[in-house]
Amino acid sequence: MSQRWSTICARRVANSTRWSGRWARRHGGGATPAEGWTVAHQIAHLAWTDEVALLAATEPERFGDEVAKALAAPDAFVDEAADALVAAHAPRALLARWREGRRRLDTMLREAPAGPGSPGTGRR
């Protein structure tokens, strides 16, 4: 792994740790600057983003399905995904889902070969 990727991965882990601490203190119900979103919505958005990034790198056909959904509702797609995750998971389960997805994405990025055609780079 290149030094650049190593630094990016280390920052992601540090950010996850900070968010996890905030979550544990607030249990997801606190308001945020994003109108209508709670901390739970932000965690759900992060979980969804990590899951879709992993999907892009590992299952391009399924990622294409997600892109089609996004194109069908570009102004609502992200909010709907966060709302669905918040509705489907208790706060601790949502946090666990995010942590596991973050761990899986971190592992994929660390193990990916450097250079063009690497997963998640968009280059072939």
Give the key terms.
mainly alpha, 124 residues, 0% strand, globular
Can you count the helices?
5
Task: Please bin the fraction of helical residues.
Answer: over 70%
Question: Class by helix and strand content?
Answer: mainly alpha
- The low-confidence parts are none
Query: How would you sum up the global shape?
Result: globular
Largest sheet: none
**Radius of gyration from the CA trace?**
15 Å
What is the N-to-C succession of helices and strands? HHHHH
**For the terminal residues, how far apart are their CA atoms?**
18 Å
Tell me what portion of residues adopts beta-strand conformation. Answer: under 5%
DSSP strand tally = 0
Name the average pLDDT: 80
Overview of the molecule:
The longest helix is centred in the N-terminal third of the chain and has 24 residues, at 3-26. The protein is an all-alpha fold. α1 (3-26) runs antiparallel to α5 and α2 crosses α3. Helix content is 73%, strand content 0%.
Question: How is this fold's topology laid out?
Answer:
Elements: H1 3-26, H2 39-58, H3 60-72, H4 77-88, H5 91-111
Helix pairs in contact: 1-5, 2-3, 2-4, 2-5
In short:
This protein has 124 residues and is mainly alpha-helical. It is built from 5 helices and no strands. The longest helix has 24 residues.
